[in-house]
Amino acid sequence: MYSVAEERAERVVSGLPHWTPGKTRIHCPPWLCSPYSVECVLRRGDSSGIRRKNYTDLEEVAAFLHSAITGNGRQGYQWLHLRAIQQGYVVSQDTIRQLVKLLDPDGVAKRRALRLSRRQYRNKGPNALWHMDGYDKLKPYGIAISGCIDGFSRYIVWMEAYTTNNDPKVIADYFVSSTARLGGCPEWLHADRGTENGHVENMLIFLRRNHADSFARDRSFLYGRSTANQRIESWLAILRRQSAQFWIDVFYSNVMDISPGISWTRI
């Protein structure tokens, strides 16, 4: 037998795509199954001074969730709840969870089974997109690494070690030397918002100032988080496994032998 909450949820989402009535049920909250009517509960709450939230209509919330799920991939209910709050919807996290179970049952099943498919990396060709980042794991021992990789071919554009990778003039020199050696610059370059990347950004914008494609001029340099800079982060992880970790251990052991009384933190 259906509860009031189940019938209402089905009425809300029955008109949306990918929804078949009768195949999915939502759990009835205990307070809805009490012998008191909803009106009685609300009336007693008012008399007790309990504030009633002006919740957004469920049809509007369901429409927002449907567009978010189809437009941004299959996200979890916590992320969707945060997005709904940011968009001005007044809705509880549990309501979002129940609606997501109805609107995206396949995504819920995959997340529950921890079998989410990874996002696909797309790059249209060589020198279309370069990824640039620094590597600081050897910095405590005086070695600062800066690298850049072509996203399509994974060709190492440069991988340099110096005493610093935070000086914009040093990073700019790597960029100028690489573009001169390769005979050109990329259409697009992805890096984090470090101050060391400012000169490279200005030079790339200047080199692309007369181009007419969609990534020309000030759109040719893309700022983003290091965790989203997939190609260079993946290569730096390989660098640590195959080489850097060995030297980190060597330097750490030598430092401990030289200064046993000083507290050092292994990276």
Notable characteristics:
about 270 residues, alpha/beta, Nucleotidyltransferase, domain 5, 2 domains, five-stranded mixed sheet, 9 helices, about 10% strand, RNaseH-like_sf
Describe the structure.
The chain is an alpha/beta fold and 267 residues long. It folds into two domains: 4-112, no CATH class; 129-258, Ribonuclease H-like superfamily/Ribonuclease H (Nucleotidyltransferase, domain 5, 2-Layer Sandwich). The protein has nine helices and five strands, in the order ααααααβββαβαβα. The chain has helices at 4-13, 38-47, 58-72, 77-86, 93-103, 105-112, 168-182, 198-207, 230-258, and strands at residues 129-135, 144-150, 156-162, 188-191, 221-223. Strands 3-2-1-4-5 form a five-stranded mixed β-sheet, with helices on both faces. α7 runs parallel beside α8 (198-207). The chain is elongated. Residues 17-34 have low confidence and may be disordered. This is Integrase core domain-containing protein. Residues 121-253 form the Integrase core domain. It holds the Pfam family rva_4. It comes from Coilia grayii. InterPro entries: Integrase_dom_put, RNaseH-like_sf, RNaseH_sf.
